[in-house]
Amino acid sequence: MNATLETSGYAPTAYRSNRKAPEPKENNQQSALFRKSWTMGSPLSKGASSGLIPPGLLETWHPQQLREYEEIEKRKGVAELQERHTYHGRLDEECLRYATLPKLSWALLWMQHGGRLTFYILFPIFVFVWVVMWFMEPADVSFSHYFSDAVLPTLQFFFSPMLLCWGLGRLLEKKYPKLVYQDIKGPLWELNRRTGMVTLFKDPEKEGQSGEIRGQAPFHEWDGYLLSLPDHQGNIWYRLVLVHKTQEWALPMNQLLAATTNREDVLAYWDLIRQYMDVTKPLPDIPLFEAYRYLDPTTRAHDEKTGRDPYHWRNMNEEDYDAFKRKNQTALVNHSWR
Predict the structure, then answer these.
(1) What does the DSSP assignment read for 241-308?
(2) Which of 1-15, 39-53, 256-270, 272-286 is least confident?
(3) Is pLDDT at 3 greater than 70 in this prediction?
(4) Do 193 and 17 meet the contact criterion of CB atoms below 8 Å apart?
(5) Strands (DSSP E) found in 63-178
(6) Spatial contact of 212 and 232, defined as CB atoms under 8 Å apart
(7) Nearest-angstrom CA–CA distance, 216 and 247
(8) How many Å separate Cα 24 from the centre of its chain?
């Protein structure tokens, strides 16, 4: 974790694609069950990168969001900008570190938004069913009798709990935000570009384990795998998983790019992760990293040489950005994936 950086700004363990990486010294300690659970077929290629961008990352971090975030950071002041290195979660030129809210926070958020979404989805369906059933009732049945017998019980015992969860969750979020958005206890994993290390942390929810390392190894000792899983409708969902070559360490990477039915999205995601970790190449040129490009030595040299506009993404209008996304999507579909 605290590897000494060379004058280049990177540790000796930093991943370099132009250098032959040594194989792990220890023997393979993975069980057959572990391999069956986390690997399918051969590892993904570590050859030439496609240079393409997963559409999900372009949707999550877009120019308008960057401009709004930058405005918020300006209002915070320089002192708080310098504190980003103390955050549990980071996505910048140094590392991709994932941390999540405590379980209680997620339970309260699911209570609110689960109740809201379920009500929005089911209530119109039930209204339609109630109307159809009403017209099917005998002529001598009054509406008040039908309502009290068929509609009211469903409202009381089915939809009322949804509205209660929604309302209570919204009230807590508005009046007691610190209860809902509790302090993050610690990170779950980290990919560090400067040191080249991939780190898995222990469960931060457990007493005394926050920030403690469960497993750590250089990036070249990890392989990428395309995991696929069918859903109930028969659709195949894909996600990226990093698996250590010898230890029983597996890191699902679906927190930054959710599982998708588009196989090529995950392959582009793997290429992007490899480029991010490769200090012989600049950071992937996506909106997410633009504000940090000048802080990375290789990227700064590349941008100075090519004359890249430091505000390329942040100054881009929505029409040009939509055109770029369409071009990227077309290239993604037409690319000859290995």
Answers:
(1) EEEESSSS-EEE-TTTS--BS-HHHHHHHHHHHHHHHBTTSPPP-SGGGGGGGGGSHHHHHHHHHHT-
(2) 1-15
(3) no
(4) no
(5) 90-91, 95-99
(6) no
(7) 10
(8) 29
Quote the tokens at residue 237: 């969902």
CB 270 within 8 Å of CB 262: no
Give the list of residues 6+ apart from residue 121 with CB closer than 8 angstroms, or none. none
* Model pLDDT, residue 181: 67
The confidence score (pLDDT) of residue 118 equals: 86
Which pLDDT score is estimated for 193? 97
CA distance 75 to 68: 11
The pLDDT value given to residue 80: 46
Instruction: Give the CA angle between residues 250, 252, 255 to the nearest 5°.
Output: 150
Q: Rounded mean pLDDT of 138-157?
A: 83
Measured in degrees and rounded to the nearest 5, phi and psi for residue 216 equal: -155, 135
* Nearest alpha-carbon partner for 337 in 238, 248, 253: 238
Q: What is the pLDDT of residue 44?
A: 92
Checking if the pLDDT of 101 tops 70, the result is: no
For residue 190, give the H/E element and its range: strand 187-192
Determine the average pLDDT of the residues in 175-190: 75
- Enclosing H/E stretch for 171: helix 160-175
Neighbours of 148 (CB within 10 A): 11
pLDDT digits (tens, 9 = 90+) for 73-87: 665 554 444 445 444
Q: How many CB atoms neighbour CB 209 within 10 A?
A: 14
The structure tokens 């942040």 sit at: 314
Q: Is there a contact between 273 and 50 (Cβ–Cβ < 8 Å)?
A: no
Widest Cα–Cα separation across the chain:
90
Exposed, middle or buried, 10 (CB in 10 Å: 0-12/13-18/19+)? buried
DSSP sequence for 23-56: PPSSPP---HHHHHHH--SSPPP-SS------HH
